[in-house]
Amino acid sequence: MILIVVEGETEYNYFSDLKDDLKLPTTNIKVVSGSGGSCVNIVENAIQLCNENDYEEVFCIFDGDRPEYKKARENAHRYSIKPILSIPCFEFWFLLHYRYTSSPFENCKQVIEQLNRELKQVGIEDYDKSQSGYYGLLKPKLNQAIANAQKLEKQLSESDNPSTKVHHIVTHLQAQKDFSS
């Protein structure tokens, strides 16, 4: 069984839709909201859930726009939890579906501004964090996002702005589908 602890609604909706699309049994993947807040709390939530259940793999998805992300990443590694970090935010993963960029962002607001420009070209007025359905919208460009993230990863380190590790969990879950088919 795989546990995925996410930071907020956006990530929760995305991974729930991905899990459903891959038709992975609900007993194999559990998507749990880390109740927002700090990255450290997300990892602590995952540790608590690990103490209550036996998971084969545990992932924590969080943004690197907060100063405590390094501590959260260290705590995750200490407990064999795989941190999936996006700097400055998860929405950078969405942006990579439309185009490659290695230009740094001052904050998540800048990422969303660029994402909104891309979304307008496909008829979506403004990005809304609480809206579900982004996985379905982005799915046709998923391979492009993975390729863009891999290219970026070869050029930059995990702590660089921008960066994301979301492609690691996406490809891992895709492989789970292939394995269970």
Structure overview:
With 181 residues, this protein is α/β, with parallel strands linked by helices. It has one domain. The chain is 49% helix and 14% strand. A 5-stranded mixed beta sheet has the order 2-1-3-4-5, sandwiched between helices. Helix 2 packs parallel to helix 3.
Short description:
With 181 residues, this protein is α/β, with parallel strands linked by helices. It contains 8 helices and 5 strands; from the N terminus they run βαβαβαβααααβα.
Feature tags:
5 strands, globular, alpha/beta, 14% strand, 181 residues, single chain
Number of helices: 8
Secondary-structure content class: alpha/beta
Counted up, domains total: 1
Q: What is the strand tally?
A: 5
Largest beta sheet, briefly?
5 strands, mixed
Percent of residues in β-strands = 5-15%
Shape: globular
Q: What's the alpha carbon Rg, rounded to whole Å? A: 15 Å
Topology of helices and strands:
Blueprint: E1 2-6, H1 9-21, E2 29-33, H2 39-52, E3 57-63, H3 69-78, E4 82-87, H4 91-95, H5 108-120, H6 134-138, H7 142-155, E5 163-164, H8 166-180
Parallel strand pairs: 1-2, 1-3, 3-4
Antiparallel strand pairs: 4-5
Helix pairs in contact: 2-3, 7-8
